[in-house]
Write a structure and sequence with these properties.
alpha+beta; globular; D-Maltodextrin-Binding Protein, domain 2; 21% helix; four-stranded antiparallel β-sheet
């Protein structure tokens, strides 16, 4: 009898476990673009659709990683883990609190700050069991305090049931500054021999050349060398994947279906520091695209190479990792554009191999002491090094109110005389009382707290980007399963914070778009989600194909011009979607 009772008790306990485990649901676990990290977290935490007012964040730690198990197959080197800052949001449930969620309706979202290409890889990879997505390892102690990384939010200590749900969750979405075709090209470029000719076609009538970066490792064909920071122990692994067709590790399985949804358009900010060195690099207010390309090519090295500077100081040029969407947007918009044909990774090869995984390379202008190009990993490391520079420094990052927060020692520049965020440098035409003009200290970033007249966020209009005059910008995107409700919820939350933070131009208000183009050897076989048209947001041209092709550095094209072309010539493809 006792045995029967014990078995009955055990059976009841086993029946209870599944219902308990389902009390909390990971709606979306993902990662990718560092440019999107803060605003995605803020939007998801505040969004009515997500219903997740509770937050927890952490900096990089070996206890929280995005794990790719494919490289552990056969004689491979083992699992590869990517570390990055993370935010988590959850709802308290029908009967609980943030610190102790309980009952029904406990929805969980998370996002890791990796970079765009790693985010793409973590979405599209398929393991040996045919299951897509990186595994999120989340070994966090119950009640662990958060790091308060989301401006405007105070973290709750981590509840045990939220931790348990997130551990071993699969990536189901990714944030990216570049399209999947461009991310795939960035990966292919990493594996190509350093300095070898590879083909790309963003503008020209014939395929244009660029060069491989040399991160391949002959001992592990699909696993390359790491990309390392010159400042910290931060790194990224270089691992192959396919966004369309068979996985390179597991050819029996194709990459998952996907939809790309555009969040908005955002400019890259070119900035110098220290802002107090007005006789040095902060004496500049503008930089031409040619000068900018030459600094990042490793040719220019002195602060006097910028107009308005009197002191000849060596410049530390800060370069992002080549798997970053920020790197690729900047690379193909400025140094590696069809105008200049240079690259941020020039003078980088030792034979066919990469010379320096940290890119701690002296600039090549006659041995200017202290003039170097150095690798930074992620937006936060870029802004940290700009805020506390070792000397006159030059860098770039995507604008957002969260990224600019606290950058008191950073001055942004116009590029070719064009301001990326305000109506004109230090001025807003309609943001004063009664829509009157207002002026500010030129170069001080809104939200930064910099000295002098700091522009309010309301002064951010993106007027010149929307006119097609600013050279370095990209659409921000989320990749997820077609029809994904959680991704739609995240985007809804973003749309809620954007009117107050002025982080990007919403798709409905965007008047320009990048021309798309085929990339040699890369074919997107799937219709992959919403596209753009000024008359009907959601369509390129009436009856046209879905958005496809690369667009990093593609020509700035007014959307109205595309719509008129479609109408006048009866062409459903249009000028934007030139992929054949």
């Amino acid at each position: 009898m006792k045995l029967v009772k014990c078995l009955m008790v055990l059976a009841v306990a086993l029946c209870v476990i599944p219902s308990m485990s389902k009390a909390q649901t990971v709606q979306a676990a993902g990662g990718g673009s560092s440019a999107l990290f803060l605003e995605l977290g803020q939007g998801t935490a505040s969004g009515a659709a997500t219903g997740t007012p509770c937050t927890w964040t952490s900096g990089k730690t070996a206890n929280i990683v995005a794990r790719d198990t494919r490289s552990a197959q056969g004689s491979g080197p083992g699992n590869t883990d990517e570390q990055g800052n993370i935010w988590v949001t959850w709802s308290a449930g029908s009967t609980g609190s943030c610190g102790s969620p309980s009952g029904t309706g406990i929805n969980i979202y998370s996002y890791m700050q990796l970079d765009s290409v790693v985010g793409n890889k973590c979405y599209f990879m398929v393991d040996s069991g045919g299951v897509p997505g990186c595994i999120q390892i989340f070994n966090v102690a119950a009640s662990a305090p958060g790091a308060d990384l989301l401006p405007g939010y105070t973290d709750t200590n981590m509840p045990s049931n939220i931790q348990g749900a997130l551990n071993n969750a699969r990536f189901t979405y990714a944030g990216t500054d570049i399209r999947p075709e461009d991310a795939q090209f960035a990966t292919n470029r990493m594996f190509a021999n350093c300095g070898s000719i590879i083909y790309r076609n963003p503008y020209d009538l014939e395929y244009r050349l660029t060069y491989g970066l040399g991160y391949a490792n002959s001992a592990t064909p699909n696993v390359g060398l790491q990309v390392n920071s010159a400042f910290t122990s931060s790194f990224f692994n270089v691992i192959n994947y396919n966004f369309s067709g068979p996985d390179p590790f597991n050819s029996a399985y194709n990459s998952p279906q996907f939809a790309v949804t555009t969040v908005g358009a955002q400019p890259i900010i070119v900035a110098v520091s220290p802002a107090t060195d007005t006789a040095g690099i902060a004496g500049a207010s503008d930089i031409s695209t040619y000068t900018l390309a030459m600094f990042y090519d490793g040719v220019l090295a002195r602060s006097t190479d910028l107009a308005g500077v009197t002191n000849t100081n060596p410049v530390i040029t800060l370069v992002r990792e080549p798997l970053s969407g920020t790197y690729n947007t900047f690379e193909f918009s400025v140094p590696n554009s069809s105008q200049f044909h240079k690259t941020q990774d020039d003078f980088f090869c030792s034979g066919s191999a990469v010379y320096s995984q940290t890119m701690d390379i002296a600039s090549s202008t006659g041995g200017v002491a202290g003039a170097v190009r150095k690798r930074v990993i992620g937006t936060s490391q870029m802004t940290t090094e700009l805020q506390s520079p070792a000397g006159d420094s030059l860098g770039y990052f995507f604008w957002s109110a969260a990224n600019a927060n606290g950058l008191t020692n950073v001055k942004y520049l116009t590029v070719n005389g064009v301001d990326p965020i305000l109506d004109s440098y230090g001025a807003c035409l309609t943001c004063g009382p009664g829509n009157t003009p207002e002026t500010f200290t030129p170069g001080v970033l809104p939200q930064s707290g910099g000295s002098g007249g700091t522009p309010p966020l309301g002064a951010v209009t993106f007027k010149n980007l929307n006119a097609g005059d600013y050279p370095a910008w990209s659409a921000l995107r989320l990749i997820g399963r077609p029809g994904s409700v959680p991704v739609a919820n995240i985007i809804s939350g973003l749309a809620g914070i954007n009117p107050t933070q002025h982080d990007y131009i919403s798709p409905d208000n965007l008047k320009v778009w990048h021309a798309h183009f085929p990339i040699y050897g890369i074919v997107g076989a799937q219709a992959d989600g919403p596209t753009l048209n000024p008359a009907t947001p959601g369509d390129l041209c009436s009856g046209g194909a879905a958005e496809v092709g690369g667009d990093a550095g593609g020509a700035n094209l007014p959307k109205q011009v595309n719509a008129d072309y479609c109408h006048d010539y009866g062409n459903p493809t249009g000028l934007i979607n030139q992929v054949n």
